[in-house]
Amino acid sequence: MARSTAILNPLSSTYCRFTSSKTSEPTLIPILLNNTLPSKLTYSLTSLHDPSSTREITIPVSKLIKPRKHHLPHHNPSSVQDASEEDDDLALAAQWSLVPTNPKVSSDKRHHPLPPSSSSLISSSNSNSANDNLLDLSDPFSSLSPSQSLYYLPITTPGHVELISMIDSEGHPIRIRRKRSTTSPTSSTAYESTLVTHCPQAGFDLRGQEQTQHRCLIDPSSFVEEESFPLGLTVKGNEPLRIKWYSRQGDQKTGFKKQESLEGIVGLGGDGKIEVPLNVSLSKPGRTSYFIEKVVDSSGNEVSYGGAGGGAPLLEGTESSRSVMVHRLPEVMFVGDCAKGDEVQLLHGKKQKLQIRMSGLQDEEQYEGQVGLRYTGVEGKGGWERQIEAKGRNVEVQVDQPGTYEIVGVKSQYCQGAVLVPNTCTLVLQPLPTLSTTFTPLHDLCSSPTGLLTTLHLTGVAPFSVSYTLTRLTGRPSSTHHTHRLSHSRDELKIEPGPGEWEVRFNQIEDRFYKKLDLRGLKGEFSKRIKVEEVAEARWREREKTVHSCEGGTVGVEVQLKVRRFRHDLCLWMAGLIESTIANRDLRPGLSNTRSWVRNLRLSKAFRNLLITSK
């Protein structure tokens, strides 16, 4: 008759439970039976921390867990050869022949899924119901032989578990198969027990920090020692431990992935938590995210965290991932007028706009920060230092005091930056332009006034512009506005308005910086009155006539003179043009009728006749 046998944990697996688990779901250890139906069993549980503390527990078969796909035993005498009662190892070898080989699962692999939810478990007492929610654990017991059956022993306390005895449904003892312990090869009585230990755990200890940390870029070419940033990767479990993690550059789902691992992790006692040294490079800008993939303890228990946070429980107070954002350093300098290398002119009563530009950052929203600005007054008198709020890459500061303005620092939302050249801007108060005038009357050849010669003296920065008004005071009053432009600080302006009484008044001046500066109320002579008499007029009677003359000879020409009141001093006017005398002295002032005389005058080569017309 075939022998009834049972073996606990036929694959020699180790199991683990989470210390911080809030569920009461048990750890399930398989029991493989052959040619029998159990009714009860007794097992021992030895404490992990105190090997001398062992207790035996007896439970009925109804407390065992039966999988969804189970097989009722068939007592087939030919299914198993009788094992040697003298050598348990040989009997165990025969027993192992009943366990099917699954190529997908290696016999030495000790990775176990998490315990199933309680809703997927039922006791063996309800196994007759075909619609029950039975546990479906397909590997490696999915195709047992007809003589074999599978049960699971639920364990809720970590420790060393040994199967002491089993009784079948008829009250007969079932032979317990055991394997020799590989940890005690010299002992003939040491058998292998099933270890249920605490599951290894891992996590990023944030220590009260945000899950995303912001750091500043370190220039690898500089001599500054690279900042060490601990990520706080922490593990706990049976040592030595092995942990595997990966990082992604940029996007947390699609960024470049780099896998890393560390083995042989041991601690120094204490609470069992071990911090894994993980250095973060700060020489490359951008976001790097770190994810824990799995942790394995010395017993081969492997806990997976699914990378992005799914999976097993973490160490209390930790996270499964964290990110480091390395920011570029901001740069700042003056632009606009301050960047031209010249002094910037500050006008009286006006404000000057200092233009500052930040650069070097990646995103527009990162330009929010502060710019340090220092002011020193003229000749070192007075000053201040302020932090200017920056809401974007361009910063404008309105100032109204001359002196030197210097950028002394810049800070973005996360990092201190560098100040570039030009970093200083000097404002010079530009004096107001001034005008001084000198009026000189203009006369004709007979000393009659014809207008004004105005000498202009200006101060300021060329080019200049002078605006004046010419007003007629007699007859029909009228005014005309004129603008005189000049490119230097001194000029002469000739004003000849014609007969009548006139006033010249200068109203405004401009230079390169000041526009339409009103002269009213300023000290200086800016207006002048002049009376212009009607003067004589002389012209050729025949302008287009060509006169020929031989050398030494004389020719006659006609000149027409017009005056309103013929004066005796007319000869003075003519003296500058011709050298002659008028023979007829009957030309008297005050003639009321127009009369004409033609007299022979002796002229030198040019004139022969003179036509004088008096009105």
SSE map:
Layout: E1 5-8, E2 15-17, E3 27-34, E4 38-46, E5 54-60, H1 88-96, E6 148-155, E7 159-168, E8 173-177, E9 194-198, E10 201-205, E11 212-216, E12 233-236, E13 241-249, E14 256-265, E15 274-275, E16 286-296, E17 302-304, E18 318-319, E19 321-327, E20 331-335, E21 344-346, E22 352-359, E23 369-377, E24 383-390, E25 394-399, E26 403-411, E27 418-419, E28 424-429, E29 434-443, E30 449-459, E31 464-472, E32 478-486, E33 490-495, E34 500-510, E35 517-518, E36 527-532, E37 537-540, E38 559-562, H2 570-575, E39 595-600, E40 609-614
In brief, what are we looking at here?
By secondary structure, the chain is mainly β. The chain is built from two helices and 40 strands.
Uncertain runs with pLDDT below 50, 5 residues or more?
70-138, 185-189, 566-573, 575-615
Tell me, rounded to a whole number, the average pLDDT. 77
What is the count of helical runs?
Answer: 2
Q: Give the biggest beta sheet.
A: 9 strands, mixed
Could you tell me how far the N terminus lies from the C terminus, measured between alpha carbons in angstroms?
171 Å
Compute the number of strand runs: 40
Q: What overall form do the CA principal axes indicate? A: rod-shaped
Rg, rounded, reads 58 Å
In total, the number of domains comes to 5
SSE-based structural type: mainly beta
Roughly what fraction of the amino acids lie in strands? 35-45%
Descriptive report:
This protein is an all-beta fold. It starts with a strand and ends with a strand. Residues 70-138, 185-189, 566-573 and 575-615 have low confidence and may be disordered. It is rod-shaped. The protein folds into 5 domains: 5-198, no CATH class; 201-327, Immunoglobulin-like, CATH 2.60.40; 359-429, no CATH class; 434-532, Immunoglobulin-like, CATH 2.60.40; 536-615, no CATH class. It is 2% helix and 42% strand. It is built from 2 helices and 40 strands. The strands form 8 sheets. Strands 1, 2, 3, 4, 5, 6, 7, 8 and 9 form a 9-stranded mixed β-sheet that branches.
